[in-house]
Amino acid sequence: MFKKLSAPAEKSIKNEITSSEVAHFDETGLRTDGKTRWVHSASTESATHYHVHNKRGAEASISAGILPNFKGTAVHDGWKPYASFKCRHGLCNAHHLRELIFIEEQHEQKWAKQMAELLRRIKIAVCKAQEAGAIALEPEPLQNFSAKYEQIISDAYVENPWEVPIGPPRRGRKKKTKPLNLIERLDKQREQVLLFMT
Hints:
Elements: H1 7-18, E1 22-32, E2 35-43, E3 48-53, H2 58-64, E4 73-76, E5 88-91, H3 93-107, H4 110-131, H5 139-159, H6 178-188, H7 190-193
Parallel strand pairs: 1-4, 4-5
Antiparallel strand pairs: 1-2, 2-3
Helix pairs in contact: 3-4, 4-5, 5-6
């Protein structure tokens, strides 16, 4: 179980994360006394804060006391409650890579492998540019990466048309496949997906 920090130590960690330009936020389930609780993490390269709460959503983030005061770029998995906080948002591509590998292996979809490879290539290009002292990629690679991203998204939609389910019609909203859910997120939230590139 998590050890409770002294109040000054916890305040110092919270202040460091809150004042940072970029911080990562995530949540995961935890079973205690036969009940599911949620561990909420906020982290930078030098500080990490954990907060255990009975709920997973915005109420827990408010209780943790970091996101409500955070003004930098919050990188996360796209869980909707994060979007309610007034800061810049970027989507975590480590999460996307896991989903893309799953779709490639379990659904045998070529576009997923291509997208994973593209995201890795962009990351390498960004790191090389940073090492060379640049604050942004040159316009040509930016355009090339963006065009390739667009092409992969187009191919993904072709491979995953919206299918009418077989059998009697069901009430309520139609359920999308896991590949289609990911494609739509990568498409509609591409600015947040590619924030690390720009």
